[in-house]
Amino acid sequence: MPPKAKPQLTEEEIAIISQWIKKGADFTLKLSSLPETDTLYQLAAKRFAPGEANVYDFAAASNATIEKLNTENRIVSKEAINSPALDVSFFNAALFDKKQLTELTAIKKQVISLSLARMPVKDADLKTISELENLRHLNLSFTQITGNTLAELKKLKFLTSLSLSGTNIKAEQLNQLKDFPKLKTVFVWKTNTTTTAIEAAQKQISHIRLETGYTGSDTTILQLSSPVVLNEEGVLTEAMPLKLKHYIQGTTIRYTTDGSEPDSILSKEYKTGDMINGNVFIKAKAYKAGWLGSSITEVSFFKSTYLPDSVFFILPPDPSYTGKSNLLIDRMKSEINFKSGAWLAWRQTAMEVMLVFNKPIPIKNVMLSVLKDAGRYIFPPQQIEVWGGTTKSNLRLIGKATPTQLSGMEPISIKGYDCNVSTAPVSYIKLKVKPVPKLPAWHSGKGDKAWLFVDEVLLN
Fold it and tell me: What is the CATH number that goes with domain 305-459?
């Protein structure tokens, strides 16, 4: 809820949020997909009635374009029912890439609101943002901008509100905003400047309101953004430095490798030079005096000792998510976006692949890098079987594992599921991996078949 002295949610807004949560709190839910008799539809339709909507002189973007731009860390949604205007929000700094801003040029006429709060946005990115010609609201809070290129945003002739809170801008740089055609409000609380300097800047640009936030005795404690993982390698062939970063100075990062939640005292404090090796699951959290601890950042690293000389499908992936078989052994981890093109998926059949080695290898463990996304029916495998031998025609079962299944909705993640084997060196390995045949009773799709998404097979 908002802090005291700030506007509180209305009963109508609370009702809308409650109905949305009851439907699973799905950020991709479209109001247009609900029947007119649905309670959420009726509440929202009243809230965003066409008579109250702004009128725009640009055409709507196609549904296909909007759907393509919706990813795991970027939500593109309509401002209101039947409106051509679009709101865009980014919410996962670890997945942010500046090319994702460039991709918005496909809807540069339709975007009227853009939130990049806590993303690693830099001064140079403002030039790209300035191409969103009908932008009205821009949130750059807690980004890496310094204010040196604010003038780039003058091209946004409809911009009415700009949030620069939590950035390193200086008060004198705000003078660049004085000639912005329609700019009315700029949020500048917790910036790298003083109250006196802000007051002086306000006199220079008196037609723009500089909002410094609530400064009474009931102060608001803000939550830190999550730590960012800078490692590009998801698969390790040797020991590597762990690279964690936070963009607020004086922040301490603590992390665990055993799956437990990091705390501010007992968990290992991250230091430059910390090394990782083998299969490691990192949970990291940021702490700073006077702030609430951040949400947890999770990342998995996988070890790969042996690389097959060739791999081929015995049972091919589903046609909707297919690709070359060497995607499984390219030692390139995919994003959690299941539409990235780096995932292979099975549903109607088991996953069956053959790995071939020109020279026998003394394998001890097989691990699959698997996507978990219960909301999209993507589950861990039901069973993993490893068959091996020195000839293709004479294979025997050398390992078997039954992974633990989901017991409820969990955050989307990538996890390694392994199977230990004990055998003499082998030249051929056949993997038989079964998807879950029926979704559990707690799932909204109970009884339906689950998907199995795999991006890497790792041998050690």
Answer: 2.60.120.260
